[in-house]
Task: inverse folding
């Protein structure tokens, strides 16, 4: 059955190809082709999953080599796949959530003239993402890595006549490429040291590499992960990526692509296992990011941006987890999966709200939508509870496990990691409750307003193609954590990322941690209720506001910093260089040409026709020649 | 002795000569030219099929060899032969020319110029390129190297844009200067070989066999002569300023030939001549060249973003790419060499396509200014898609041809030149920047720009709100690609994508010749099997 593995990515790739090439002829059926290829991939993924489940744990890593991709000298890059518990877990997430979001998109994009193009790009994304997780070497990873970057670029810029969408797409691609440089240099280093890029060989021999080089490799890989996963300091593209259609935000910028950084670190766990410093840096990046995301999430009024910063923050949790090493890889993947369910569900819910509200995203224009769209309200509400870690919903299991593991670190790390993660859990509860109240409860503020298209709002429930995926994901949000935990996700992942190390020691008793987290979350909910729920929400954004709120509204100045340090100097440098090239370099050339032209004019005047002047110049020349000869002889 | 290469050389010459009697019958001239170009392509395919990488790997330096004495007094020969690197460049040339003719088919030529002359010059350029890539006698190579200038000079000077006189003279003088310096070195090389062998020679393999016996100080002088000629041709910063002018003023098909293939003669010259003939000097001078290369990567990219003219924009992106090729060429590992050789082919394809897309845009809007276009994707989605694909290939996205070569160059350069490689790798951010910047300016956003609006104007009248859909229905507006244009682009698109996933056939041809170059340099690969950790 393993022979079917290539079809996993070939089918969506074919779907993309046909939808791109068939042109308008495919407008009638292209979207269903897109859905069919991803569903088919999901079925194949399930078959392979159950087949693997039937094997003994040590036989669950299998490779399929398709052909030699890049070969020169001692370098040989295989176009090959690696099927192991980690990659299969991702395959099921990508194709499973992917199928639901494809189905949802049929309804969501039904009025869009570019629907076929949309499905082509979405299929392209699925194919690239599958290559990313299935590849059996670092170059395959890189192929998928930049492939999803392209798909993300295309989809963020889907509404391409909107300048903001085009700019956001460009920004996403560029910031990703900054990370890609790190990934690329890591690949060069690994090849230099080990002469191979196949995972199996690299992981078997990474111990031969000097410690300093291993640390460098882990930091470079982390840079790649930061770019793709929107982690500090490369986080600011992800909120802008919300310019894309909402299903894209759900699939690419919440459930799958942005978690590729977590995948990368889990995948290369044998490398990270060797360097405690490297892991510490990973965790620190995760902690900083989860705080940044949670703080900024409190300040936005744009429903998608709040969810986007929530994603930044939740991926921060995952990065923190995988930075904890053998005690955390499986936890990071666990949270990644549950987050995939509930965050995709939340985004689809947000899309449903936008669908009902003339594509408006400003929560200040919403209010009281709960009774107009009950299915959206309930499914979104369940996703909300899962995200804030309501006991026994999926986020409770996965997030708590990470916070417990963080507190189980010794010394300052335990306090800082655990404390920050707990604080952010409280903030998460705050911003999500604020979002819920502003959107679904309270006064129906939209009644006195007009939509961005100048028409009245008529909120209504979305069609079945949209609500059914939302319901399925809501089930996942409720049950996913418990199911994954009880069927033994950790043992299943062990062949890929190692056994999950039992927690011991730490700065707080383990039994206390869940209570602490619930208490903080409750506090967040209560404060949100006091701030937003008991007072009418102004339709206009209040200003002036306090300094922290102002900072949060401006993304903690991340864009300002980028602009001042990189963008503006870059523009000046470019202008200066153009000037130098035209006037300096080319000017010198033209100057020489002019000089020669003038010089030859003057030389012409030397051709006087007088024999004596020729004789003089011959004498001069001879002297020069003799002098040169003598100089050479004696040198 | 195989006559294949002589035939390959003569076919385009004959085709070009036939243009003269056909000058009053334009359709016949075009058909003949196209038939010649296609025949040439078929010949290259035949040669490719007959080329044996296995023989090359077991030590046969050149295949399809042909040699007759030319000027016995100087020991020059009409000697031809190809290795894998020459073969892939021949294939690139022969592949591009028919497609370019298709684009030139309906091109509006400057007043008083005939299509037969245009096509004759294209074929003449092709012939000189064949000569330059197949010569195995250094003097013969020099002759073709200089001869290449002549048809290109006329292509730019007679068929080019408004500023063509300036551009063509500049191009000619620049190249001629480089050529003359190379001639001086060539004579020096001849004399040196006479001192060692007792009888001077221009034959490449004889010169190579004595290369290590030439004292390094002599090698450095000779190296510099060749290097400057090739650095101007490639071009490397700071010898580059002729390229933006020539690339911008040349008609698009000539620009593709110029930047896509002709410039490769410079980088090809590095690999074929400077490294094997001056091995010690190449090693000594490598830091200098690598510095220029890395400067080129960043400088070209930053300047590209600052350009106002689309053709100059593409020219500057090429300068950045040539930096990568030069880096790979002077990083001395078989991966970097193979990457550099493959890069030459891939750059010809991707930049060729980029130039063609610019040409198609200019043909519609009548302006070369970037600011005259905007939001074209809404009016001409297929054109925009093709432009984006060309751009993705140019920024070396994995899955396109260029990724394979850029990856090989960088991974192969890293062991010997880690700092330069890291800086060049940062260049991939700049590559993304200039491509996406260009795409956003011209294709994305609302429909805008004088050239686009003018083309829509007849429908709505000046200043009217123009609904593109209405414009398209009435037959006016900014047309998307025609069937013929798509047909001409299709082979290019297919090759760009297929070589991204299956570079094997090309690499198989390149690799043995690259190994030979490593041997001639007398250097081992920096990364042994199993890496340096073992």
Result:
């Amino acid at each position: 059955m393993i022979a079917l593995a290539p079809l996993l990515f070939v089918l969506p790739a074919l779907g993309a190809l046909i939808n791109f090439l068939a042109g308008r002829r495919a407008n009638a059926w292209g979207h269903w082709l897109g859905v069919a290829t991803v569903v088919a991939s999901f079925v194949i993924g399930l078959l392979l999953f159950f087949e693997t489940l039937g094997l003994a744990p040590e036989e669950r890593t299998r490779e399929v080599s398709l052909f030699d991709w890049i070969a020169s000298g001692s370098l040989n890059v295989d176009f090959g796949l690696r099927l192991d518990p980690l990659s299969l877990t991702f395959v099921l997430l990508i194709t499973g959530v992917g199928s639901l979001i494809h189905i949802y998109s049929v309804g969501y994009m039904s009025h869009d003239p570019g629907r076929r193009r949309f499905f082509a790009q979405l299929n392209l994304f699925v194919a690239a993402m599958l290559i990313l997780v299935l590849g059996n070497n670092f170059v395959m990873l890189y192929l998928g890595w930049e492939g999803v970057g392209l798909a993300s670029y295309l989809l963020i810029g889907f509404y391409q006549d909107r300048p903001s969408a085009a700019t956001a797409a460009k920004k996403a691609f560029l910031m990703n490429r900054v990370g890609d440089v790190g990934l690329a240099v890591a690949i060069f280093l690994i090849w230099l040291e080990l002469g191979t890029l196949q995972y199996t060989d690299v992981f078997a021999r990474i111990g031969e590499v000097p410690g300093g080089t291993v640390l460098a490799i882990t930091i470079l890989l982390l840079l790649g992960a930061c770019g793709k996963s929107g982690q500090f300091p490369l986080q600011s593209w992800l909120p802008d990526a919300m310019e894309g259609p909402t299903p894209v935000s759900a699939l690419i910028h919440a459930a799958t692509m942005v978690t590729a950084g977590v995948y990368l670190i889990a995948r290369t766990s044998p490398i990270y296992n060797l360097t405690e410093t490297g892991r510490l840096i990973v965790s620190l990046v995760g902690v900083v990011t989860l705080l940044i995301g949670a703080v900024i999430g409190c300040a936005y009024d744009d429903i998608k941006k709040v969810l986007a910063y929530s994603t930044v923050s939740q991926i921060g949790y995952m990065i923190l987890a995988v930075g904890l090493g053998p005690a955390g890889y499986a936890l990071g993947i666990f949270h990644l999966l549950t987050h995939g369910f509930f965050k995709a569900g939340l985004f689809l819910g947000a899309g449903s709200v936008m669908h009902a509200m003339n594509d408006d995203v400003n929560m200040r224009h919403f209010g009281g939508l709960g009774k107009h769209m009950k299915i959206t309200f309930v499914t979104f509400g369940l996703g909300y509870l899962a995200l804030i870690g309501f006991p026994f919903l999926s986020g409770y299991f996965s997030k708590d496990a990470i916070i417990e593991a963080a507190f189980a670190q010794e010394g300052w790390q335990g306090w800082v990691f655990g404390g920050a993660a707990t604080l952010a859990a409280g903030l998460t509860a705050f911003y999500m409750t604020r979002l819920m109240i502003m959107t679904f409860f309270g006064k129906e503020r939209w009644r006195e307003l007009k939509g961005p298209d100048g028409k009245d709002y008529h909120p209504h429930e979305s069609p079945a193609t949209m609500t059914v995926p939302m319901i399925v994901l809501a089930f996942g949000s409720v049950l996913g954590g418990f199911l994954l935990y009880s069927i033994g996700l950790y043992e299943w992942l062990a062949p890929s990322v190692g056994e999950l190390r039992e927690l011991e020691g730490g700065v707080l008793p383990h039994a206390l941690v869940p209570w602490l987290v619930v208490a903080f979350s409750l506090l967040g909910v209560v404060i949100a209720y006091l701030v937003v729920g008991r007072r009418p929400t102004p339709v206009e954004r209040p200003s002036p506001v306090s300094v922290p709120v102002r900072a949060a509204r401006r993304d903690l100045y991340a864009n300002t910093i980028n602009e001042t340090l990189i963008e503006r100097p870059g523009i000046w440098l470019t202008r200066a260089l153009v000037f130098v090239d035209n006037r300096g370099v080319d000017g010198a050339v033209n100057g020489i040409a002019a000089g020669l032209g003038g010089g030859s004019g003057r030389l012409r005047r030397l051709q006087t026709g007088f024999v004596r002047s020729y004789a003089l110049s011959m004498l001069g020349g001879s002297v020069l020649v003799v002098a040169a000869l003598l100089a050479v002889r004696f040198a | 002795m195989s006559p294949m290469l002589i035939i390959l050389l003569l076919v385009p010459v004959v085709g070009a000569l036939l243009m003269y009697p056909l000058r009053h019958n334009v359709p016949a001239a075009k058909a003949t030219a196209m038939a010649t170009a296609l025949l040439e392509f078929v010949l290259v395919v035949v040669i490719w099929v007959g080329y044996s990488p296995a023989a090359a790997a077991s030590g046969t330096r050149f295949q399809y060899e042909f040699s007759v004495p030319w000027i016995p007094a100087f020991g020059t020969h009409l000697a031809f032969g190809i290795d894998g690197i020459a073969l892939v460049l021949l294939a690139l040339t022969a592949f591009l020319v028919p497609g370019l003719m298709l684009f030139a088919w309906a091109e509006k030529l400057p007043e008083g110029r005939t299509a037969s002359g245009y096509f004759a010059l294209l074929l003449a350029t092709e012939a000189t390129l064949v000569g330059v890539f197949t010569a195995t006698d250094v003097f013969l190579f020099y002759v073709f190297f200089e001869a290449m200038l002549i048809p290109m000079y006329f292509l730019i000077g007679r068929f080019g844009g408004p500023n063509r006189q300036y551009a063509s003279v500049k191009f000619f003088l620049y190249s001629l200067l480089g050529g003359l310096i190379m001639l001086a070195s060539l004579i020096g090389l001849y004399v040196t070989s006479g001192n060692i062998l007792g009888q001077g020679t221009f034959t490449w393999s004889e010169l190579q066999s004595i290369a290590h016996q030439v004292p390094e100080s002599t090698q450095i002088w000779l190296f510099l002569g060749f290097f400057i000629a090739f650095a101007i041709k490639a071009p490397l910063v700071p010898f580059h300023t002729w390229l933006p002018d020539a690339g911008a003023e040349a008609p698009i098909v000539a620009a593709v030939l110029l930047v896509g293939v002709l410039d490769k003669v410079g980088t090809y010259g590095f690999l074929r001549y400077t490294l094997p003939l001056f091995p010690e000097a190449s090693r000594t001078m490598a830091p200098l060249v690598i510095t220029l290369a890395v400067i080129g990567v960043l400088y070209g990219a930053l300047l590209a973003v600052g350009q106002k003219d689309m053709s100059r924009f593409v020219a500057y992106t090429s300068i950045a790419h040539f930096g990568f090729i030069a880096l790979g060429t002077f990083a001395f590992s078989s991966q970097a060499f193979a990457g550099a050789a493959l890069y030459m082919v891939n750059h010809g394809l991707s930049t060729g396509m980029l130039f063609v897309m610019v040409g198609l845009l200019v043909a519609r809007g009548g302006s070369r200014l970037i600011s005259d276009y905007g939001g074209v994707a809404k009016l001409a989605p297929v054109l925009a898609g093709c432009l984006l694909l060309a751009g993705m290939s140019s920024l070396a996205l994995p899955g396109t041809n260029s990724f394979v070569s850029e990856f090989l160059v960088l991974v192969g350069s890293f062991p010997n030149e880690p700092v330069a490689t890291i800086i060049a790798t940062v260049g991939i951010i700049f590559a993304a920047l200039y491509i996406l910047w260009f795409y956003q300016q011209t294709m994305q956003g609302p429909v805008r720009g004088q050239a686009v609006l003018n083309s829509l104007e007849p429908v709505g009248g000046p200043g009217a709100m123009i609904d593109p859909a209405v414009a398209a229905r009435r037959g006016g507006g900014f047309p998307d690609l025609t069937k013929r244009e798509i047909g001409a682009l299709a082979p290019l698109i297919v090759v760009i994508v297929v070589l991204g996933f299956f570079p094997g056939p090309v690499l198989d041809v390149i690799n043995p010749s690259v190994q030979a170059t490593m041997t001639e340099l007398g250097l081992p690969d920096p990364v042994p099997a199993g890496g340096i950790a073992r």
